[in-house]
Specification:
Shape: elongated
CATH class of the largest domain: Alpha Beta
Largest sheet: 8 strands, parallel
Strand order of the largest sheet: 10-9-8-7-6-5-12-11
Structural class: alpha/beta
Number of domains: 3
Strand content: 15-25%
CATH architecture of the largest domain: Alpha-Beta Barrel
């Protein structure tokens, strides 16, 4: 029967939870539902559970509603079995348990992220350190110092030293040979980018060269550079150069495929900023597709940037995408139902409840508090006095009778505004919760544990 799980719920959600669990029968667990003696499951707290559940029986794990307040870890200690919050909406239980019957493991990946500080010459050392710390928190493994043509970078060496002192792996990115030479002498871990004609810069430097063709279409020059370093026993990365759309994008993708076929075991890097930065489209989808290509071709490193305001979460996107793609590849699955972080504007199940289900819930409500739920047909607002349905909050207002209660009117205005946005875009709405925008909102908690860079910034192949 597998793991024995106890699900705690309230009266209103009991039957719906049982129906949802019925569809999960083939998962690797058996389940038991316990109604805790309260009407709304979302109002459950850890203290309430402790008072009302004396013994969890033979349960090996307890799942409480996602909105449950309080210290669930204390419950784990009290009951002697793991207690964890489930999804905020019980309709999300299939995603919660993942495609393998348990929560998806996104702790691993096989791609190193180089995050470029494009305007490093124009920043002071402290500013560079601040930006680097933010990139590392978002998942970057290597801090790339981008040099600017014609702009002096007198503090290049100091910047490298300060970054390495803080535990960062560092790369220097320049088209100027003298800057690459300075970066190599200062101890940069990677040198971006060397060509056949500038290969001498690698010399005795400890930094790993990243090789590009003399011209994007000149793959033979890339091969000759690679074979020269291979003959010396040197480690290197190959970058066939990803081009922007209408400036060679499709041909550049083919180059990556060609290089991988020629060198099945080579370490390859892809600069994804030429797509995320130079395309007026939401970057989450672009990142997902490119990281899918990265996964299929076993590309071991990506270089990303956050210059354009619309690309300001590119590092976080690449981090989540590399984890999703690796997990799906490991499991032999499509990259679906692993993590919602890249679905900023749409949700897979924006309207988990039908209007009939909402009506059934509304009929059981016996108090005057307003509930708001979405269905495909629009926004439902209900309490014990009835249920209203509309797509425009202004159409609902006359029936709410809150003219004399400013605070209540304000609350309903905020909630109905959120509900309208969610209904228009096809996003999940949950009353009393902000809409979730995935990684599109900087600082949002995406649930990914990041331990930070190890300091070596190594590229790991598969």
């Amino acid at each position: 029967m597998g793991e024995r799980i106890l699900f705690l719920t309230g009266r209103l959600a009991h039957d719906s939870l049982c129906r949802e669990l019925e569809g999960l029968k083939k998962r690797h667990f058996s389940c038991r539902v316990h109604e805790l003696g309260l009407q709304v499951a979302g109002l459950m707290t850890a203290d309430m559970i402790r008072r009302r559940l004396a013994d969890p029986g033979d349960a090996q794990r307890i799942i409480v509603p996602g909105l449950c307040g309080g210290d669930v870890e204390a419950l784990s200690q009290a009951y002697g079995v793991p207690v964890e919050r489930g999804p905020k909406d019980l309709k999300d239980l299939p995603e919660y348990f993942g495609t393998t019957g348990r929560r998806p493991d996104l702790s691993e990946h096989r791609v190193t992220i180089l995050a470029e500080i494009v305007d490093a010459p124009n920043m002071g050392v402290e500013q560079i350190l601040e930006r680097a710390a933010a990139y590392r928190a978002d998942g970057a493994d290597v801090i790339d110092l981008g040099c600017l043509p014609g702009v002096a970078f007198p503090h290049l060496e100091d910047s490298i030293s300060a970054l390495k002192h803080e535990g960062h792996a560092v790369s220097v990115d320049s088209l100027e040979p003298s800057e690459l030479e300075r970066g190599a002498a200062a101890g940069a871990d990677y040198l971006l980018s060397l060509k056949e004609s500038t290969l001498h810069i690698a010399g005795e430097a400890a930094g790993t060269p990243v090789l590009i063709p003399e011209r994007p279409s000149d793959l033979p020059s890339l091969y000759r550079a690679a074979e020269a370093l291979a003959a010396q026993g040197r480690r290197f990365l190959l970058d066939p150069v990803l081009e922007p759309i209408h400036f060679g994008f499709t041909e550049s993708l083919l180059r990556y495929h060609t290089v991988r076929r020629r060198y099945p075991d080579a370490e390859i890097m892809m600069g994804i900023g030429n797509l995320t930065e130079l395309t007026d489209a939401d970057t989450t989808g672009i990142t997902a597709v490119l990281m899918g290509v990265v996964s299929e071709l076993d590309v071991g490193a990506v270089l990303t940037t956050e210059v354009s305001p619309h690309a300001h979460t590119s590092v976080r996107e690449a981090d989540i995408a590399r984890r999703i793609m690796w997990a799906a590849k490991r499991d032999g699955n499509l990259p679906r139902r692993y993590h919602p972080g890249l679905m900023a504007l749409r949700d897979r199940k924006p309207f988990p409840h039908t209007s009939d289900e909402v009506a059934q819930t509304a009929a059981a409500v016996k108090d005057p508090s307003f509930r708001i739920q979405l269905a495909r047909e629009g926004i439902h607002v209900y309490n014990r006095d009835g249920r209203q349905l509309a797509t425009d909050p202004f159409a609902l207002y006359p029936a709410l009778a809150v003219d004399g209660d400013a605070s209540h009117a304000f609350y309903l205005g905020v909630e109905l505004g959120r509900a309208q946005i969610a209904w228009q875009l096809g996003k999940r709405y949950l009353q009393d919760n902000e809409l979730e925008w995935g990684v599109a909102v900087r600082g949002a908690n995406d649930g990914i544990h990041r331990s930070g860079a190890t300091g070596d910034g190594s590229v790991t192949g598969e």
